[in-house]
Amino acid sequence: MFETAIPYVSNGSYFYMVLTFLLSTGMIMKFKQFEKHSLIQENNYSEVSRFLKKYGGNQLSHLILLKDKKIYWAEEGKVLIAYKKIANKYVVLGDPLGHGTHIKKAIKEFEAHCHEKKVIPVFYQVSTRFLPDYKAAGYRFFKLGEEAKVNLDVFSVAGKQGAKLRTRRNKFERNGYQFNVLHPPYSEKLLNEMAEVSNSWLGDRKEKGFSVSFFHKNYVSRFPTAVLRCPAGKLIAFATLPSDYIKEKETVSIDLMRQIEASPHGTMDVLFTSIFLWAKEHNYKMCSLGMTPLANVGESKNSRAPEKMARFIFLHSKFAYKFKGLKEFKSKFAHEWEEKYLAYKKASLSVLIIQLILLIHNNLEYKKIVTDKESVGKRKAS
């Protein structure tokens, strides 16, 4: 309905009206059409791991190992495209992976595949590196936010600039808190401890998916993990640390991070600071903190109307505190900010954004895990 009525969002008023209307009525469910869960499990993930080790990944490639996406092999297996279906769209996570010389053709090949399947291709969180290739293929762009990066050659807790972080970290150490980076395989005891921390952090909230990692023992067991324990030895916080594979000594990411609800003030500051110092000591050059939604979106006088309206809506709504807080937290550490875009065509931007929100928030893989656990529990009880 909305895609035919508004084929292209040319001004902010359309964006605002459609977004507000969809959020405030039951018609949002019209777009909540997901591929069945059984279709998501057909990929050979050992093959994916071999590919990433050969060609390298990016700041999102570890999320493929959540197993909530499908894989399309382009350019005779030289390019990997991870995607998930919602409604009539195949949403690709990040840029295609592989050798840069094959990406342009891979984008066109995937588009032909989508045309054959009668769906519309969308690329979520693409980098500026390949924008010319998307543009040549007829894609439009919407700025989603910026990825925060810590330059580890520059990062330091010495001097006046690092005083606050240094003081907080020293206080934790004096009080007996212990930081370590552990490597798989992990014991069942540790995985259970991590699960307890994760459940405490979640509370009544639900796990997200697609572009956001979620807790699963098999997933966290694939990466090094930073842990912080209290003086009594109890785990109070952790973060998984995937690397970019082929360049594994260059970039590390802080991926799934969790802390217990009763953790002391400054726990995450200490955990992050300790991770940066560890990574620096182990010769990593950069640490990714992930994308911050709406960071510096709509601020430029050259920003498109939908970007300006998106910024207005979110910064003057219940989401304002959350987005500002996330940006402020990452700004404590980040030295660089890299723009991330949505590349799309033949779609109403307003409807597409709603579908992306549903895609991230409706985690079918996590729901299956919970359902399986409950089934096992019932069988044991009987």
Description:
With 382 residues, this protein is an alpha+beta fold. It folds into 2 domains: 2-147 and 292-324 and 339-372, Gcn5-related N-acetyltransferase (GNAT) (Aminopeptidase); 154-284, Gcn5-related N-acetyltransferase (GNAT) (Aminopeptidase, 3-Layer(aba) Sandwich). It is 39% helix and 20% strand. The protein has 13 helices and 13 strands. Strands 1, 2, 3, 4, 5, 6, 10, 12 and 13 form a 9-stranded mixed β-sheet that branches. A 4-stranded antiparallel β-sheet has the order 7-8-9-11. Strand 8 and strand 9 form a beta hairpin. The longest helix has 18 residues, at 364-381. The model is unreliable at 1-43 and 374-382 (pLDDT under 50). Its main location: membrane. It is found in: Cell membrane. Residues 50-344 form the Phosphatidylglycerol lysyltransferase C-terminal domain.
The succession of helices and strands, N to C, reads HHHEEEEHEHEHEHHEEEEHEHHEHH
* Beta-strand fraction estimate: 15-25%
Number of helices: 13
The CATH architecture term of the largest domain is 3-Layer(aba) Sandwich
- Relevant CATH superfamily of the largest domain: Gcn5-related N-acetyltransferase (GNAT)
Q: What is the overall shape?
A: globular
Tell me the distance between the termini.
49 Å
The biggest beta sheet, please? 9 strands, mixed
